[in-house]
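Protein modeling request. Please complete all fields; requests missing the sequence field cannot be processed.
Requester role: graduate student
Desired output: 3D structure, token encoding
Chains: 1
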Amino acid sequence: MLARPETRESALLGPLLIVNPKAYLYGPQLLDLAVLVDEVAASSKVTTIFTAQHADLRLVAERTRHVVVTAQHMDPLRPGRGMGHVLPESLAAAGARAVVLNHAEHPMSLSDLDVALERSREVGLASIVCADSDAQCHAVATLGPDVMICEPTAAIGTGAMDEGDYVRRTTAIVKAVDPSILVIQAAGVTSGADVVRVLADGADGSGGTSGILRHPDPRSLLLEMCEALRAHPAAAGRSRTPTPTPTALPQEPTC
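Delivered output (255 residues):
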């Protein structure tokens, strides 16, 4: 049986904005967006999570100061064998401060997720875990991630929010398991008004992908979202940089 870690203070403080370019942008285009988001984060003082392709993490980390540079996935392995997999230590060494796990576009088994969360704690990466259904939200919450992204898979990339009580219901499910877990609700969010709505339903943050990337003026949209987030009761919070633990020397390579 999987045991839930003791309730603890999150490695990130809300309210949270997440900008998640997925694989739509890379290289110079991704860096342009990262710099823009960094400027907005600096002026708004909102804790801002910015995800990047693994190959771009170091580039983004070296050119930004105010965003939480975040990997889009990692594997539950340790230094040694693991050809082609993503080593947690490599992400921390590249400048990542957090990692997203179990996104609908890169799902993980519960057992792999459990180990990956343990590894994220060991290397000092804040954990941001995705879940879809009520049952998934409850199961993931028992593993004690720092942040959860609750989103109905069907709403991802549609630009249309769930019209029912999904946001309020799934947020309440997570908080009932562990009130210290911060909950991001971002599926279908395209405006500051949408952010206000999810915050009113109990969420600790919002953001998105397509709604930001497709907007004719991403800066104005980000500022609008940050204004909504700054009105959240927890707006005085600030992100804290997780401190990576010392890593062991690499093992002798084997084929």
